[in-house]
Write a structure and sequence with these properties.
- The complex is a heterodimer of chains A (about 110) and B (about 325).
- Chain A is mostly beta strands.
- Chain A has a single domain, classed as 2-Layer Sandwich (Alpha-Beta Plaits), CATH 3.30.70.20.
- Helices cover about 10% and strands about 20% of the residues of chain A.
- Chain A is elongated and about 65 Å long.
- Chain B has about 325 residues and is of the alpha/beta class.
- Chain B has a single domain, classed as Thiamin diphosphate (ThDP)-binding fold, Pyr/PP domains (Rossmann fold).
- Chain B contains eleven helices and eight strands.
- In chain B, strands 2-1-3-4-6-5-7-8 form an eight-stranded mixed sheet, with helices on both faces.
- In chain B, helix 3 packs parallel to helix 5.
- The longest helix of chain B is centred in the last third of the chain and has 22 residues.
- Chain B starts with about 25 loop residues before the first helix and ends in a 10-residue tail after the last helix.
- Classes of the chains: A mainly beta (about 110), B alpha/beta (about 325).
- Bound molecules: thiamine diphosphate, iron/sulfur cluster (3 copies) and magnesium ion.
- The site of one iron/sulfur cluster has 13 residues of chain A, from helix 2.
- Chain B: Keywords: Oxidoreductase, Pyruvate.
- Chain B: Its EC number is 1.2.7.11.
- Chain B: It comes from Zestosphaera tikiterensis.
- Chain B: It catalyses: a 2-oxocarboxylate + 2 oxidized [2Fe-2S]-[ferredoxin] + CoA = an acyl-CoA + 2 reduced [2Fe-2S]-[ferredoxin] + CO2 + H(+).
Chain lengths: ~110, ~325
């Protein structure tokens, strides 16, 4: 059940929003029909998907990863599936085609 | 000069929260992410009504982490002027220390800048307020349903420049907002494009380091308004530069510099064919657009004093 809206008396003057970045409460994953899946062995850590994602939902993590070929990386790129809208920009721009757009089956 | 920035130099920290309602693949969302990375954390942002405003501030939530204010559609630059004047007054009265350097950033869409907000912008530039104004240009009034604006390019379909037997999309050419800003003798103007993010970051930092009014014109692909698949946003932004439809440059104290030279241009149809809004164009109309691009490139090369944007290679 949705709780009733606050009265104007309870709101700050000018209805100022006091919580920066509070849209994080609204998860946008349901917009998605395709899910980007990053192949960590193929990824060359070029940073392009991270830079071009309109949602900022490709996370750049200080998480070491050793590829099957034995190459060691200090960072890992992971998708935050709570907000990814499935636009496909990351997969389209990846220079080594390390991101696959997989249909969401629900 | 120090070395040019690369993609590695862009700050990791996000200052523009997810959960906003901008469309899948929105070009303006990419711009906002990187603009908020480039400006200091205490920068005050004033924003005109438009897509970015309505999709980021659905009460009681906001995607912004900067102090951010929206008043109306036509007055983002006037609000910024007031904020900047208020900062000066607060310093004069000793409320905030004289040494505290708070930047003011103002943003609007093309409708809110080229058309309805032009008076507020002109006043801000003329009075010399220390404000950076960024126009994200998606070439129509997108938020209200794709109506043409003064920034809509020749030939583009919009809901108010339809395509039929009599009308062939927009029949006027895009307004030159940069020349309008330069006519106010401002110290810095630049163009940026979301496919060229280190360039964008560098220009914003430079603009903020210069005192006085500055204008940055940003290319902003729009998925539903330009009619393309969302994955193509950056591909279209790149193709705009490779065809010479869009040129990345800056004018610093009258000195003109192209920041993304293009030795060999691609034919303009490579850009047009990616977008449904140009689908109706005939070969003759495309060659007319090519002529307009050639004219623009000639003008740019003249300003640069050398060939920085090369000829079309087929
Ligand atoms: C005075 C006034 N007229 C009209 C509107 C309705 N309106 C809101 S946003 C908008 C379009 C904005 O277009 P633009 O500035 O290009 O931004 P975009 O939505 O394309 O990002 C219009 C017409 C308004 N809010 N105020
Ligand atoms: S599909 Fe789009 S929203 Fe999702 S991670 Fe890739 S670029 Fe970001
Ligand atoms: S664009 Fe591709 S290669 Fe580059 S970091 Fe992303 S997944 Fe890795
Ligand atoms: S209509 Fe266009 S500019 Fe507006 S949010 Fe959608 S893609 Fe972005
Ligand atoms: Mg617009």
């Amino acid at each position: 059940m949705s709780k009733s809206l606050p009265s104007w008396r309870e709101l700050p003057i000018g209805a100022v929003i006091l919580q920066p970045g509070s849209t994080v409460r609204y998860k946008t994953h349901e917009w998605r029909t395709l899910r980007p899946v990053i192949n960590q062995d193929k990824c060359i850590r070029c940073r392009l998907c991270w830079a071009y994602c309109p949602e900022g939902t490709i996370l750049e993590l200080d998480k070491p990863y050793t590829t099957k070929a034995g190459k060691v990386y200090n960072i890992t790129y992971e998708v935050n599936y709570d907000y990814c809208k499935g636009c496909g920009v990351c997969a389209y721009e990846c220079p080594v085609k390390a991101i696959e757009m997989v249909p969401e089956v629900r | 000069m120090s070395r040019p920035l690369t993609i590695r130099d862009l700050p990791r920290e996000e200052r523009f929260a997810p959960g906003h309602r901008m469309c899948q693949g929105c070009g303006a969302a990419i711009l906002m992410r990187h603009i908020t990375k480039a400006v200091p954390k205490d920068t005050i942002i004033t924003q005109a009504t438009g897509c970015v405003e309505v999709t980021t501030t659905l009460y009681p939530e906001t995607a912004w982490k900067h102090p951010w204010i929206h008043v109306a559609f036509e007055n983002a630059a006037a609000v910024a002027s007031g904020v900047e004047a208020a900062l000066k007054a607060l310093k004069r009265k000793g409320v905030i220390p004289e040494s505290k350097d708070v930047k003011v950033l103002s943003m609007g869409g093309d409708g809110g800048t080229f058309d309805i907000g032009i008076q507020a912008l002109s006043g801000m530039l003329e009075r010399g307020h220390d404000v950076l104004y960024i126009v994200y240009d998606n070439e129509a009034y997108m938020n209200t349903g794709i109506q043409r604006s003064g920034a809509t390019p020749f030939g583009a379909w919009t809901t108010t420049t339809p395509v039929g037997k009599v009308w062939r999309g927009e029949w006027r050419r895009k307004k030159d907002i940069i020349s309008i800003a330069l006519a106010h003798r401002v110290p810095y103007v630049a163009t940026v494009n979301p496919a060229f993010l280190p360039d964008l970051y560098e220009k914003i930092r430079k603009a903020l380091s210069i005192k006085g009014p500055k204008l940055i014109h940003a290319f902003s692909p729009c998925v539903p308004g330009w009619r393309y698949e969302p994955e193509l946003t950056i591909a279209i932004a790149k193709m705009a530069v490779f065809t010479g439809v869009w040129v990345n440059y800056e004018v610093e104290n009258g000195e003109f510099r192209v920041t993304t030279p293009v030795p060999k241009r691609k034919p303009v149809e490579e850009y047009l064919k990616l977008q449904g809004r140009f689908r109706h164009l005939t070969a003759q109309e495309i060659s007319e657009i090519q002529k307009y691009v050639d004219e623009q490139v000639e003008h740019i090369n003249k300003l640069a004093g050398k060939v920085v944007i090369g000829p079309v290679e087929r």
